[in-house]
Amino acid sequence: MSQNGKLYLIPTPIGNLEDITLRAIRILKEADIILAEDTRTSAPLLKHFGIEKKVYAHHQHNEHQSSNEIVRLLKEGKNIALISDAGTPAISDPGFFLVREALKHELTVECLPGPTAFVPALVNSGFPTDRFCFEGFLPLKKGRQTRYKQLATEERTIILYESPHRFVKTLEEMATYFGRERQISVSRELTKLFEETVRGTVEEIKAYFENHPAKGEFVICIAGYSSKAAAIEPEN
Ligand code: SAM
Question: How many Cβ atoms from other residues are within 10 Å of residue 71's Cβ?
Answer without folding.
Answer: 19
